[in-house]
Amino acid sequence: MIEIAGTQFALNDPVILIVGGVVALILLLLFLSLRAANRSARMAEPLSRQMAHLGQHVQQLGQGQEQLRGGLQHVSDTQANAQLQVIQTVESRLSSVQQQMNDRLADNAMKSARALAEMQERMKESLHGSSKQTATSLTQLQERLAAIDKAQDNITKLSGDVLSLQDILSNKQTRGAFGEIQLNDIVSKALPSDSFKLQATLSNGRRADCLIHLPNPPGPIVIDSKFPLEAYEALIGSTNDTELKAAVQMFRTTVRKHINDISEKYILDGETADGALMFLPSEAVYAELHAKFPELVQESFTKRVWIVSPTTCMATLNTMRAILKDARMREQAGAIRKELGLLHKDVDRLGDRVSNLDRHFGQAAKDISEIKISAEKAGRRAQRLDNFDFEEIAPDDTPGVVPLARHEI
C-alpha cells in the first residue's frame, strides 16, 4: 500500500501503475535529455572553438585588408609622385634642350648672316676695285691709242731719222742687242714682272726673246725682236731702178723667210698661243712695210705672225695686261664661287642637322606620350587595386578556401 496525501493506493492499482509509468518515463526522458545535453555540450565545444578561431581569422583578414588598402594608397601616392617627378624632369630637360638648340640655331644663323654679309662686302669691294681698275685700264688704253694715232702722224717725220738708225744698227750684234733691250724696256713697263720671261727656252730647243704667260686661251705668246734690217738698208740705199728692184725683191724674200721662221719656231701646238709677235725696233720700218708691202702683212696674218712696232707693241702689251687682270679677276671669282659652294654645303648640312633635331624632338614627344599612357595605365591599375574584391578573384574550386559572404566579412 502506498499513502499519498492521506490516500492509500494499492501497488497493483492501475492508477498507481500509470502514474509510476509516467514518472519513470519522465525520469527516463530527463535522463536522456541530460545525456543529450551533455553530448551536445561536448560536441558544441569544438564548434565554439572553431567559431572563435574563425572570428580571429576574420578579424585578422579585416586588419590585413585595412593594411592592404593603406599600402595600396601609399603605392598609388608614391607612383603618382614619381610620375609627376618624371614628367617634370622630362619637361625640364626638354625645355633645356629646346632652349640650347634655339640658342645654337640663333648663333649659327647669326654666324651665317655675318659670314654672308662679310662675303658680300668683300665681293662688292673686289668687284668695285676690279671695275675701277678696268675703267682705269680702258682709259689708259684710250690714251695710248690716241698716242698711237699721234705717232702715226709723225711717221713721216721719223723717216728722216733712218740714216742715224742705220748708223746705230750697222752691226748685226749691236742691232740684235738694241732690239732686245728696246723690247725688254717696253715689256717691263707694260706688264708685271711675273707675267713674262726673257730668253725663254721652248720644248723644241728654240730660245724666244720674250715669252708672255697669257692664260688659255690664247696661251703663252712669243715676241721675236731679231728683224733682218740689211734688206731694209739696201732698200733705202738704192740709187736706181735696178738696185731698187733688187732691194725690193731681197726685202720681200727676207721678211717672208723671217715670218716663216717665227711661225715654225715659236708657234707650238699645245705649248704656245696660236700666234706670235714680230717686233720691229723702228717705226719707219713698220710704216714702210705696211705702206709698200701689204702682201707681206697679209701673209703674216695667214701665218699668224703679228707685226708690231714699239708704239703698237706697247698698245698690244697693255691689252694683254688687261687680259691678265681679267684672268686674275676670274680666278678671284672662282675662289668666291668656291666659297659660296662651301657656304651652300654648310647651309645644306645645317638643314640636315635641323631635320635630325626635329626628328629627335618628334621621338621625344612620342616617348612622353608613351610615358603618359604608361602612367595612365599604372593609375588605372592602382585604382583597381584600391577597389579590390577578394570574392571576385578567389576561384570557387580552390582547395582549402571557403568563399565568405560579404556580410560575413
- The helicity comes to over 70%
Number of helices: 10
- What gross morphology would you assign? rod-shaped
Which residues form runs of ≥5 with pLDDT under 50? 390-409
Largest sheet: 5 strands, mixed
Strand order of the largest sheet: 3-4-5-6-7
What is the residue-mean pLDDT, rounded to a whole number?
A: 77
Rg over CA atoms, rounded to whole Å, is: 64 Å
Transmembrane segments: 15-34
Protein name: DNA recombination protein RmuC homolog
Family: Belongs to the RmuC family.
Function: Involved in DNA recombination.
Kindly describe this structure:
- Belongs to the RmuC family.
- Keywords: Coiled coil, DNA recombination, Membrane, Transmembrane, Transmembrane helix.
- Pfam families: RmuC.
- This is DNA recombination protein RmuC homolog.
- The chain crosses the membrane at residues 15-34.
- The protein is an alpha/beta fold and 409 residues long.
- The chain has a domain at 171-335.
- Helix content is 75%, strand content 7%.
- The chain has ten helices and seven strands.
- It has helices spanning 14-153, 155-159, 162-168, 172-190, 230-237, 241-266, 283-292, 294-302, 310-386, 390-393; strands spanning 2-4, 7-9, 196-201, 207-212, 221-224, 276-279, 305-308.
- The strands form two sheets. The protein has a five-stranded mixed β-sheet with strand order 3-4-5-6-7. It has a two-stranded antiparallel sheet with strand order 1-2.
- α5 (230-237) packs antiparallel against α6.
- 13% of the residues are buried.
- Mean pLDDT is 77; it is low at 390-409.
